[in-house]
Amino acid sequence: MRTELVTTLKRRATEILSELENEKAPILITQYGKPAAYLVDVETYDDLQRQLNILRGIARGERAVEEGRTVRYHRVAKDANWRESVLPMFHHYFLTLSIPRLRPFITMRASI
User: Cα separations (Å) of 86 from 28, 37, 72, 73, 96?
Assistant: First the structure.
């Protein structure tokens, strides 16, 4: 990983930002010899934020399972009335089918 001094960033900001956009590799900025910040391009930052949101959703789903706040998938799948009356009340729902031990569950977080 590339490292730059904060003073170098001040002097060559335009050039460093151009290189960052082309190379897509984070740059560690140091101040007084210590790590102070990471400089990343916008696309990389947006991708990291999306990945973080996915991980947060998985963590919410795992907490819901641990706390017993779940509904069995087969119940939702076969009960059309329940799907139509309850699911629309939730703005966010997280389907945890990609995690093998959570496969039988649908977990929901109310936005109320």
Answer: 48, 45, 14, 14, 18
> Could you list the residue range(s) of the whole structural domain that residue 23 is in?
2-40
CA distance 57 to 92: 10
Q: Are residues 48 and 35 in the same domain?
A: no
Whether 34 and 49 share a structural domain: no
Task: Kindly report the pTM of this predicted structure.
Answer: 0.58
Q: Provide the token pair at 51.
A: 């990945």
Does residue 28 share a domain with residue 63? no
Q: pLDDT of 10-57, one tens digit each?
A: 999 999 999 999 999 999 999 999 999 999 999 999 999 999 988 998
